[in-house]
Structures
1.
Amino acid sequence: MKLPFVCCPCRHSLRIPTLRNVHISRQYTRPSFAPKPTLNLKHIRQNPGLYEQNCIDRNYAPYAKNGWRILELHDRLVAQQREAVELRQRNNVLSKELKGGASGKSTLVDEAKELKGELAEYERQERVVQEEMEQLALELPNLSSLQTPTGEKPKVVGHINGDTPPSNHSGKSHVDIGRELDLLDFEASATTSGWGWYFLKNEAALLEQALVQYALTLAMRRGWQVMTPPSLVYSHIASACGFMPRDQSGETQIYAIGHQEGKEQKASLVLAGTAEIPFAGSQANKTLSESDLPLKIIGPSRCYRAEAGARGVDTKGLYRVHEFTKVEMFAWTAPPFSSTSGFENDEEVQQTPSEQVFDEMVALQTEILTSLGLHARILEMPTTDLGASATRKIDIEAFFPSRTSIDNGYGEVTSASVCTDYQARRLNTKVRFERGEVKSTFVHTVNGTAMAVPRVLAAILENGWSEEEGVVRVPGVLRKWMPGEAATIGPRKRTGVD
Amino acid sequence: MKQPFVCSSCRLSLAKALKDLGVNGSVNNKRAYTRPTFATKPTLNLKHIRQNPGLYEQNANDRNYAPLAKNGWRILDLHEKLVAQQRAAVELRQRNNALAKELKKPEEARVGLRSILLDEAKLLKGRLAKYEAEEKSAQEEMERLALELPNLSSVHTPSGSEPQILRYLNGDSPPSGKGSKSHVDIGKELDLLDFEASATTSGWGWYFLKNEAALLEQALIQYALSVAMKRGWKVMTPPSLVYSHIASACGFMPRDQNGETQIYNIATNETSAAAGTGLVLTGTAEIPFAGSQANKTINEVDLPLKVIGPSRCYRAEAGARGVDTKGLYRVHEFTKVEMFAWTAPPPTSEGGLDVHDDVRSESEIVFDEMVAIQEEILTSLGLHARVLEMPSTDLGASASRKIDIEAFFPSRTGIDNGYGEVTSASTCTDYQARRLNTKLKFERGEVKAGFVETVNGTALAVPRILAAVLENGWDERRGGVVVPRCLRKYMPEGLEYIGKG
């Protein structure tokens, strides 16, 4: 069949990727003022098989050979550099002779010129090879921790509020509860914005405020500092944190801001799907003192996720939405003492600073969910679930009475990840210390959800629903933020007077 | 020269661009977004415009919308042409019917040859089709011209560009002895604000709030909600992303009357853009609130419907950088608590503009209540401010009347005596309701349904209030900021003072 003619502008806009041996570039273009990544190419060259296996374990098969290719390129580079050295030596000899006023000057000048040209070409090639190696290294996901199960199955490591789901529930979905009690409006949001948005009304809107306040209060008690970040960030910052325009399934997860006509724009902006991104970016190109670490912050922000390809069963409700409020924890820690790759921990008995903070995050998440009265299970996530930046991830899944047919009703409400130096190397965040010979190196970063409002709200509505009374019981810890410290949310009176 | 090949999709988009060149060949500065098929269909008061073209012309000039001043006259023109055409079409239809009757008759009774009659019928059909197409095109043009026109101005609104000072809050003149330390410096000293970090992550116009400043933001939101809730306002939290046609229907065009871009839009593919289903970031919760009642009919007994809610707001602020190169005074992203209300229109109004007596309309009552809430909040926060009746050039597209309140910023005494806008309240009569098709059902003599009126106002816009609280609360002797009393219960341990360390 004859292919339809596609004119040049259309061809350009269609951007048909030529899938052969050329990798599909998933990175954003990095503007000149962006932090320059410093990757551990040496470790990759010395362990290409490790990185290959890791890619396969993580479902990043297209990049499995990157380590080998880096090794190859490096060998080629070393050989080229040797050749260039010879040329340079000859060049030096020539310039000495030219200075000495030797005879046959013109032939010498010609040879010098030719050499100069050849050397310039070598330098250019060297640059190209360096960039190629950096690009290949940038595509590789982080290595996985020892605690991380290989494959697709998470491991249950604990429960909250009982070992099994509660049995005394009606299974009513939060969508129906929201309609009955005038708490949620999905129709209005369908009109204004389409699928995946919602209006919170009355007590639900107040519960959102209460949940944010509660999460901040608990974290502050444990010494976390509050910080409220922007929701719009440069795309290269998102990319450096491991958030690519397309994830490993080829889905678009990030909303990009359209080009502003007539406005001079330094670089493209995107909507952050988590405060992790602006938090991490806030220390880009910075060097922290060892005494500042661990630096632990927590803050609320509005998060945006395209959730492409994820609609499936969740056609309505708060379970999967495009926009929500989330309180996020982020920490910068010193790397473990002896590591150069961050992974030679076998001989260490103590926890690394990042592991300590990671455990603290999970403890805080556990405390919050426990006090909200929600039954949940704690999972050590497997390699296929880790994404690009995490070396280790623990998710907590709360029980949703209306979803017992999907995964026994369990749905993710929090996540915590250790990213070792993946983000720090890409954002150039360092720590300065005195440890033998090493004067400064990259920090480790850790992040975790303190409170993602929609799902926790949905869980509270469904678990707190009493079918006989037709009310939702408000968790005790939240009552001080509700009007009149009400213990329940009941039906609204339907008159014009209130 | 050989024409370059243009493939079919390019040809389509080119055709669309050509279509935008108006009827008389002048370039149409198309300011409205493409309206998708599922969007609300606006119902404009064309009759009122036709009957008062001079009023709309004057209004457009008063509001700095000069390019649109002749729209009313053009609508009148088009209408008259349309009426004449419709008359001509009526005659053609009559002739067409007569022909059809003739053709039905048996041959002997017929007047004229069959073939000639058929030819004439074909000709008439063609002409009628042409009339119908022209009629449709004229109506679309009239609607487009009417959509462009800004709302008419209230009798309270001064003409021109000078606001009128109505009253002051917390004293008749700015407080003395406040020093002039800017919130930026206070923020640096007390580790409350970080503009460097935000310059790295996002560029100019963003910021990180730290420690007590982040907590003050939460406290301000809680406080503002409580003030309105006490007066019976319902809390509602809206989305920040909406369809572009919803923003447009509320009066927020991709370019304002200075040609500046104020709205961030989400990058989308061509199909989406052509279908008009692209999304934009809202600069105010007014937009999703108004849109929440699009295509709805509300019962009169449910009005006035008054909601208040916090949302994250985004403004491109193009062309506005000027003096405000740093700080919270002009930013691209912020939290705002917004009030919105739907009210019943006054009884006799057709254009919603008939002035009568001292009886306030429902929207005027709600408008006054909004301003009262704003004044209560600012008074309790201890900020000196002035209340302004805004002039016609400041009203934008949708507002019929606007009151702004400007608080005093000790660090800005060189600009406008230190006063800077912190709240705004607007009454939009039926401008938004007609574009969003929000109606009410009632029984008033013969009229069974009509368009609601909408009113909106800022309860609290965090950055500027925060900046004002920091600057006005700064205690030079102690080197810290005194927390306003009304906020202390919302701060951890009832914090009264923000000091160093």
2.
Amino acid sequence: MAALWTLSLLLSACLFWPACLALTPPAELPQPHNLPPLLGINSSDGSLSVDLPIALRVFSVDYHHVQAPFEIVLWIMLASLAKLGFHWSGRVPAVVPESCLLIMVGLLVGGVIYGVRHSAPPTLSADAFFLFLLPPIVLDAGYFLPGRLFFENLGTILWYAVLGTLWNVLGIGLSLYGVCLLAQSSLGDISLLHCLLFGSLIAAVDPVAVLSVFQEMHVNEQLHILVFGESLLNDAVTVVLYKLFESFLRLPSVSGLDVLLGGCRVVVVGLGGLFVGLFFGLVAALTSRFTSRAQVIAPLFVFLYSYLSYLTSEMLHLSGIMAIVTCAVTMKQYVEANVSERSNTSIQYFLKMWSSVSETLIFIFLGVSTIQDVHMWSWPFVCSTLLLCLVWRATGVLLLTAVVNKLRRNAVTFRDQFIIAYGGLRGAICFSLVFLIDDFPKKRLFITTTIVVILFTVFVQGMTIKPLVELLDVKRKKRALPTVSEEIHSRLIDHLLAGIEDVVGYWGQHYWKDKFEQFNRKYLRRFLIREDHQAASSILRVYQELERREQRGDEEAPALVDPRSHSRPLLPEEMDSIRRILSRNLQNFNNKQTQAYSRHTLHQDATMDRTRKPLYRHQSLAERYTYNTITHWPQGEDGEFNGSRRVRAGLSRSHTVCSLSPRPVLQDSSVPAASAQTGQVDPKSSASREDQISPQHQAPVERAPKKQISFVLENEKQQ
Amino acid sequence: MGSNSSSVNNIPNAQELMQETGFSAAHILRLHERFEFLDKDKRGQLSPQDFGALPELALNPIGDRIIGAFFSPGQETVDFASFVRILAHFRPTETNRTRDGAQQEPVNSKTRKLKFAFQLYDQDRDGKISRAELLQVLRAMLGIQVTEEQLQSIAERAIQEADLDKDDAISFDEFRKSLEKVDIDHKMSIRFLR
């Protein structure tokens, strides 16, 4: 009940703001304003005057003075209240993705403004979008990108991004031209180049929209990174093609040479963005090294440098998205090692906050901008565009996957392919790009079609993707039941192969990764990370991972051996739940127990309590090590452990000391051979083991142990 | 990468290894480089700690089992020849291999691959995967999201499906049968550079 009251309060607040907005004179519209003075609010337009006594005013309102920031804040407030209301509304988020609701709110607001003012509401200007609203979202995505997964799938992602986008652009463009030729009467004046231009902007999958819809769907992380990575990287191709066709439109004629140059441009734009991002990322890392004396401004550098990289590459007409993503990925590990815990948390929270606000604003503006006077409708064009977008994307994904599956060990299944194809949502980037087209007779048609496509993909595809996928799962189950054994054994083999690849230093991926890691360790880390933090980083990571495993060991309930389970056959519902458990949990190929990237939450644990536990268990950790890892530790080590932990100060060994394999849980049926062999290496390993454990207690005193690899949670009790 | 300092001839028994495992000279060279990289103490032998130094392997849920698979029972170190022999299991299978005098099965045949995987479960080498062994592996792979009862029922179900002779354990043949739909040759192969 309380929720309902709160909800209605918030909704009414939501509607109050647009009323305010509607009543305030517009400032950003291109057309001249011609409003009558409004009640209660002083006129802000200099040309209009209201009769006032020429005497000392006790109370006055000067709206003009604060107009611009006031309106901006009102919009942001509206967006945030809508978001709040959305989350309070119970069951709705499960069915309707947030982006849809926000667009609906935008439509509502736009309608109100239009109704009151009888002129178009403010639209989202392309500059505002590209310069202010897009960077925070992309930065957030890049900063929290799961690095290893991304690079392992990089080949596939590039394959989809570059080739897939090209396929889509050319396909949609050419087919649309065919449609225009067929409907000569109404669409005859749209040239081939225009169609190609339109194709280039409508084909691009939008990271903002994709992210917001995948929130609600629990896809495995590999699939998530494929779709998300593709939507990020196809920016280079999209922007280049768009600019290419635009410049072709301005040229009197197009030659083969121009096309060739265009192809080179794609490469230059992509790689250029990459290098700009790299440069700024490294500079940011270096700067963060010296922030120990002014910790409060350390987060600022992260944002400044990233934004600078974006602006620089936009200035040079390179791919801004690639630049900012590269910058974030590059500087992340060094910055996290250099700055204090509080700064880290601040950075993460601010990133989340800004990207949330940006995203919400974008969707609301999408809704508002739909209410306009500039629409031109044409049934054949709009419908064929919709159809072609779907068809070309589907065929593109099918073809590309057929090829790429031969080279991948983990094939992209049909279900995944469906999600990739159907999850290709269009969003605000298309919208802004269409406004930037030079004016020509059918531009309004393009705008209308773009809006329709965006709304269709976000609403229809966004809302139906989840039920369709579930339907597909059901169908798949009916047809070919992979047995539980098969799934388990397959996943075991996947883990096995990942391990063997690690051992071998497998070329295609790990070879370069190893080389990079060596280079990283030798030069970059020394240069870019503060001295006293250098060694802690990699041991800390493994240690914290061990912590996590300890946690896992602790939290498993003491073996409740269900006496019934030995004999009873399993019911179908249980089978289903088993399947669901397996499919969700066995997908962690690299044992990263990370959830798919989530816009709205930092990866907190289910309960905060879990984070407090390790602190209390530091004392017993040593004993646990001795108990769990090697079965035959000489008992004297315990005392040495406790003593050395307190005595040792600072790090005296380099981080490569971490040579002892951390294995908290050996098999219970301890193989005599294994323990014998490890028992013999005790004396040597014990010394290094101490080094391994003790620094963790000393150096990161203010650090809370990480639960998931990427995030640090504050823990006041330790401080 | 071409290390001109060492050639295949510097590696002891290189020719035999190539003959036995089917690796080419380039492969052997590459593996030898890797072996030396892992062998931090330069003893010519690898110990479990050397494997443990690979951070991702430490985080692999069955990492310790994989490491254990390199060591024969009772051995604490592994030399280069054994290292190569184990890794030979993961060479891609070729359909029409013509090797003179190939009487026994090549190391990287499907059966040998499956046997390797089987032994990851079967730590006590009794030729069967018991319920307890299966549970251990499941626990390692599934992590914290699954409760103990669910684990038990999953293991129960797996054994029910596979166990044809009703001895409450999975033998190697039953294991192989349950994986007959999976393309093992493709799944359990690493593309070593040719």
